[in-house]
Amino acid sequence: MAKFRYVYTTFWNDPRVVEEMTAEDKYFFLYLLTNESTTQIGIYQITKKQIAFDMGYSMESVGALLQRFRDHHKLIKYNEETREIAIKNWGKYNLNRGGKPILDCVKSELKEVKDTSLIQWVGEGVSNDSVRNVYESYYDTSHDSYNVTQENEESSNDAGSYDTSTISGQKEKEEEKENKKEKQTTDSEVGQSLVTEEQLIFLTKFYDENIQRASGYICECIEHMTKENDSALVYEAMKITALQQPNKPMQYTERILANWRKDYITNVEQLKAKEEREKNKRQQSNQSSYQKLKGRTEVVSEWFNNRNEVEPTSATEISKNTIDFEAERQKVLEMLGKKESVEA
Predict the structure, then answer these.
(1) Nearest to residue 208, comparing CAs of 176, 106, 217?
(2) N or C: more exposed end of the chain, with fewer CB within 10 A?
């Protein structure tokens, strides 16, 4: 299985895509959303040469497309020095869900970004509060530090001999309220994703210990499977995979889940019922085969059944049918005598 990226079907109904993008634009945009270099955060490093090779375009065509999407469509930013590209609305469609696995992945990938201005540009479109807070922690605010310091100094000078204790107390209360509000929001989000997070941790640990090492890519796949299937079903599929030990365990697990979806199995109870039906069907089939084998009759010839009813031939009848060898001998001798007399 390859790395998956979300491309919503509404892409084809978006007015900007329908009216403003050419066929080449659509092809290029889909490539930017789904190519092998994409990351979870919507910022990734890729060279123009790699894009040209993947798409079969010339370097000039790639440069023109990047400029068109940057200046005209305003959907991307590309840093020529770091070779990093950022997609504007990535967070809106790909980062709707929080939870520890997602946050850890986002943090690890944000650390690798060289142009931090791209982080803020993408982070503004993230709808999930907990994920957006992670983006904000990586914003580059060094260019504002001088202005902030200067403003603080001016405000302190303007205060003069006025009593600022009340103002500072109000600020502390406001900050405390904001912190409390943020904490409540974070707690509520954690509460909503707590079960899912526990399930992800359990499934990842089971996969790592019983099938193969769970890399970051495997963790993404497991999370994707729990979005499409009940987590208990994912566990059942993993148990089957652990017993079979196929060469490509992740693909094997997904194939099992896909087959269950085709049979409209959405939970463990339905799966158990299906297995019970199949078990009863096999038992009935085996019992029917046994009864057929047990009830089979041998076809015997009639002469074998009537062999004891045939009356034995009597001695007189045998004697009647016996050849009279003496009479036959005399006939032969007479013929020989006549023959001898003729020759004499």
Answers:
(1) 217
(2) C
Of 240, 187, 185, 234, the closest CA to residue 211 belongs to 240
Q: Do 199 and 231 touch, CB atoms closer than 8 A?
A: yes
Q: What amino acid is encoded at 284 in this protein?
A: Q
Partners of 86 in the β-ladder: 43, 77
Q: Are 115 and 85 in contact (CB under 8 A)?
A: no
Tokens of 337: 């005598």
Those residues with Cβ within 8 angstroms of residue 193's Cβ, 6 or more apart along the chain or in another chain:
97, 98, 99
180 by Cβ neighbours in 10 Å (0-12 / 13-18 / 19+) ranks as exposed
Structure tokens at 13: 């109904």
Classify residue 45 by its DSSP letter: E
Q: How far apart are CA 98 and CA 169, in angstroms?
A: 34
- Are 76 and 125 in contact, with CB atoms under 8 Å apart? no
Residue 49, phi then psi, degrees to nearest 5: -65, -40
pTM above 0.70, yes or no: no
Sequence-separated contacts (24+) of 63-68 with Cβ below 8 Å: 65/24, 65/25, 65/28, 68/25
In the chain, the amino acid numbered 55 is: M
* Angstrom distance (rounded) from CA 235 to CA 244: 14
pLDDT (tens digit per residue) in 240-265 = 999 988 888 988 999 899 889 888 88
**Six-digit token string for 148:** 């902030």
In which order are the strands placed within the sheet that holds 84-87?
43-45, 84-87, 76-79
Q: Which residue has the tokens 């889909």?
A: 30
Going by C-alpha positions, the residue among 86, 77, 90 that lies closest to residue 6 is: 90
- Phi, psi values for residue 223, rounded to 5°: -65, -40
Residue indicated by tokens 């020989």: 336
Burial zone of 235 (CB within 10 Å; 0-12 exposed, 13-18 middle, 19+ buried): middle
Rg of the chain on CA atoms, in Å: 45
CB 41 within 8 A of CB 90: yes
How far apart are the C-alpha atoms of 44 and 57, rounded to whole Å? 20
